[in-house]
């Protein structure tokens, strides 16, 4: 009398994998942005990361 097997395990694994993939993409994007700024600074430029000021 086991009935239908539980689907909680595979669903939990898919959710965890989705979170890990999203975190990996976020970190990859942040590292790419940091590398672009480092390349800009290494080339001797001074306007690599412009500061945005709010309009009054």
Describe the structure.
It is a single chain. The model has no long low-confidence stretch (mean pLDDT 89). The chain starts with 7 loop residues before the first helix and ends in a 14-residue tail after the last helix. The chain has one helix and no strands. 62% of the residues lie in helices and 0% in strands. It is elongated, with a radius of gyration of 22 Å. With 56 residues, it is mostly helical.
In short:
The chain is an all-alpha fold and 56 residues long. It has one helix and no strands.
Structural features:
56 residues, 1 helix
Largest sheet: none
Q: From the helix content, strand content and strand pairing, which structural class follows?
A: mainly alpha
Low-confidence stretches: none
Overall geometry: elongated
SSE arrangement, N to C: H
SS strand fraction: under 5%
Mean pLDDT: 89
Percent helix range:
55-70%
Radius of gyration: 22 Å
| N- to C-terminal distance | 71 Å
The total beta strand count reads: 0
Helix count, DSSP H or I runs of 4 or more residues: 1
